[in-house]
Amino acid sequence: MRAVVCHEFAPIDRLVIEERPDLDPAPGKVVVAVRAAGVNYVDGLFVQGKYQIKPPLPFTPGGEVAGDVVAVGEGVDSVSVGERVLAMPWLGGFASQVELSAGAVVPIPGALSYGQAAALVQSYGTMLYSLTRRTHVSPGEWVLVLGAGGGIGLAAIDVARHLGARVIAAASSEEKRAAAIRAGAEATIDYEHEDLKARAREISGGGVDIVVDPVGDRFADPALRALTWMGRYLVIGFAGGDIPRLPANQVLLNNRTVVGVDWGAWTMRDPDDNRALLAELMALAGSGALSPVEPVEYPLENVIQALTDLQDRKVSGKVVLVP
Ligand SMILES: NC(=O)c1ccc[n+]([C@@H]2O[C@H](COP(=O)([O-])OP(=O)(O)OC[C@H]3O[C@@H](n4cnc5c(N)ncnc54)[C@H](OP(=O)(O)O)[C@@H]3O)[C@@H](O)[C@H]2O)c1
User: Is the pTM higher than 0.90?
Assistant: First the structure.
């Protein structure tokens, strides 16, 4: 098997690929031949030591996989060899094989491809949690999505549309805005060149009900000011770099609410509730109620390029590594 290995917290180009013996599952475990591994913004943070959790070195990054079960350990009867499964190991996914607890793998829902399945859980789990547990969306409400052509952004559009909302997508390039329209947004804003607050207010006819913000930085202030009466501002991430300081007077005005979203921490504190959320997600994805985009594929060997392109804002949509 082949695995991407991080030997030191360093720039992304220090990652290496190593050959290792094929895995043999321990009791209660299964080995999955990885057909696609989801690449997330956070993977780049992990390998550079910039994330709040620092894995012990050396480690293989990669938090999401989809593939085929190729071996099952002693005592495993819930999963069989040949099943198409997905899993979220947090680490270890950037490899041609991964060993997982039998209870941690889930059948790939419906007709989803390996790529769609490998790119599903982090983005859609976060957005389903955000829009159904951290706040609620009523049909017809306006949702403004920042970084709308990225992984979180496209999932936010799909989930919001499923809940009956109307979506305005803000993104930096024509390609990303086109992807957002294909995902279900009805209007777009070029937030690098247009006035984000003015355009969002104009399109929504007075102000948006919800802001989904995975970017932060200089876009946060105008997005907060674009919220209407009782508007909710979802703090998802800071891909833009700077953590914004939101003016408290703008939260007071219009009875707005700023809502923090830490889906990863919630999955650990409330695993039963998260299982219910994931079952809901699998049912929605399996029935076609949600339509995750086909991701951009990079060979496993091009892991450095994939992480660099994501970090440099070059990618529209999700990225997967294909071993
Ligand atoms: N809170 C949670 O539970 C949770 C869960 C998952 C992810 N996250 C966080 O959400 C954020 C977005 O994740 P993602 O998977 O959507 O990432 P992504 O696919 O890389 O998309 C992020 C988007 O941010 C925008 N951006 C603006 N300035 C940027 C910059 N300087 N560098 C990179 N991107 C920039 C880009 O869109 P434009 O070019 O259009 O501006 C890009 O498409 C990350 O910070 C991640 O850690 C949080």
Answer: yes
